[in-house]
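pls ignore typos typing on phone
2-acetamido-2-deoxy-beta-D-glucopyranose + seq
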Amino acid sequence: MNSYSSLAQAEVTTKEMGLWLCVLVLVLRGLRLQPSAAAPSFSIDYTDKCFLKDGVKFRYISGSIHYFRIPRAYWKDRLLKMYMSGLNAVQIYIPWNYHEPLSGVYNFDGDRDLEGFLDLAANFDLLVILRPGPYICAEWEMGGIPSWLLAKPNIILRTSDPGRWRMNMGATMPVTTTICATWRLSFVPTWAKKLCSSPPMAPKSLNCYVGHCTVFIQLWTLGQVNSEYYTGWLDYWGEPHSTKSAEDVARGLEKMLELGANVNMYMFQGGTNFGYWSGADYNNGIYNPITTSYDYDAPLSEAGDPTDKLYAIRTVIGKFQVLPAGPMPPPTPKFAYGYVFLPQCVALLDILGLLSPSLPFYSSFPATFEALKQPSGFMLYRTFLPHDILEPVVLSAPEDGIHDLAYILLNGVYKGTLERNKINGINISGQLGDTLDLLVESMGHINFGANESDFKGLVKNLTLGSNIVTDWLIYPLGIDKAVSHSWPPVAPLSNGTGPAFYTGFFTTLGIAQDSFVKFPGWNKGQIWINGFNLGRFWPTRGPQQTLFVPGSILSSSTINTVVVLELQNAPEKPKLLFLDRPLLNGTQISTHKNQMQIWL
Ligand SMILES: *[C@@H]1O[C@H](CO)[C@@H](O)[C@H](O)[C@H]1NC(C)=O
Ligand SMILES: *[C@@H]1O[C@H](CO)[C@@H](O)[C@H](O)[C@H]1NC(C)=O
Ligand SMILES: *[C@@H]1O[C@H](CO)[C@@H](O)[C@H](O)[C@H]1NC(C)=O
Ligand SMILES: *[C@@H]1O[C@H](CO)[C@@H](O)[C@H](O)[C@H]1NC(C)=O
Ligand SMILES: *[C@@H]1O[C@H](CO)[C@@H](O)[C@H](O)[C@H]1NC(C)=O
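k done
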């Protein structure tokens, strides 16, 4: 074992082992000058412990970037910056649930245009190391697996479970048709072996090396491949902000490159978990949701700007190979739009018909999101008090019965929040027939672990005093559709306690630039600008205090519409503050559990 092997092994955590198994294929585009007669080859030189690409010694210095965490308008800028950093490859995942939102319904358009992303990489002569899943982890909603698979409640994910485990992306993804043909053969435990034994695809306009994971694994066991050299780390809600020093990252990289290793830096740019796409980890029975920002303290920041870490890495790479000529592109311009007021407030319950246009489902006992085909977001569970409750009794969920947060309202008045693994009960009193509503929020399906069937909603029976609560009306909520197509809604104005929508407008005075939105006095919720779902905010939990607002979603010529769903209590004069820099480390966990102090 040489010194590099031990270094590599130190980097290989259990988590990485899981991720490593996802590495399937190496796709090369961009070598289009090569005559198609010469079949591409990819093998190992065992004497020198290195790859041979088309017979020539080859080493990759790669960076991870997730096209699904970056608006398409910025792909080119980020890839150019990676190329200018001296990388010769990028490593990507394909999240199955992003491309097949409903069983048999595919989406490869716009921000999901995988082929467009590969073409851009090819334009910079960047090789692509493709990790297509089906499981990708990636701190992504359910590790990339579609939650609609859980409509079969007894499915056992990430096993051979024959016939249930199928991805069928080939038809809509011509670039990777051959990969997919092999890839969807089966996902039995030996799938990797099967895939590797398939013949390489015949090159046409694209040079594609398929099925070389054996080659990867062999060189990896020789200690010459590190598929995830961590440049930083992710953040969880309610935990300290993670960072890793530029010096340490650069020093580790230099050691590996000195030993001739192939390195992929995870992440080179992290990006953002827009919408409901952030996942959650599950450790020792505790559910740990991941923040909206996936900045990762990576060499390119969440907004795609070069950091000191990027320059330190680039200097190291420059010691081993010639860097591209020319300057590093500068940071994208940022704009502090200042305060935007959100004067219009409507209670969520007052527009239930708009958010859930069909009749509610009736069920004696609670049904899950998955049973009612709700992939993410929110559902409302409604019941009526079965008798007068003069003295308060506890409305209680068994441990781990709420997935993941439930906002409780009695006759439309907000009473408090139940939270998975944290708060299981709340006192209620009222009269026969009073309306009891639980707005239940998914904070993301668990993305890591062998047995992760993480159903959402009320997953166990609730009790009121000593009686099981029965007779539920369940409303799946299509909030994103309503916000993009039917806004602002016609509804009475509300005084703003409990789940409610706040709408405001602003103009950019001709400057549509990146910005960061801060939530002074707000608690917990979701925000949309011009119908684009920027993700979850939770400043009282932290550490993240601002959300990235890509300039690409703003209009420079017309009015921009901001919609905030606050789930608990909004500030008295609801307003947002748009800044020109992020605040990702705004809270500090005190030694007392569940008590956070805001550091701003
Ligand atoms: C409910 O109220 C009782 C009596 O005031 C109190 O002892 C108990 O802690 C409360 N339970 C919850 C879950 O708030
Ligand atoms: C998966 O987890 C569930 C719930 O904890 C358990 O009942 C089941 O036995 C587990 N299945 C496997 C295959 O580990
Ligand atoms: C709720 O209780 C009923 C009656 O005991 C039972 O049939 C049902 O499975 C329970 N539901 C859940 C989600 O635990
Ligand atoms: C808002 O309205 C509810 C229901 O009418 C009431 O209980 C609550 O006290 C009001 N809150 C404020 C801040 O006025
Ligand atoms: C985050 O902020 C706290 C409080 O200011 C500080 O002690 C800590 O060092 C910061 N952490 C990082 C990673 O910047």
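Confidence is low (pLDDT under 50) at residues 1-36, 162-175, 177-211, 589-600. Residues 156, 451 surround 2-acetamido-2-deoxy-beta-D-glucopyranose (ligand 2) (CB under 6 Å). more later
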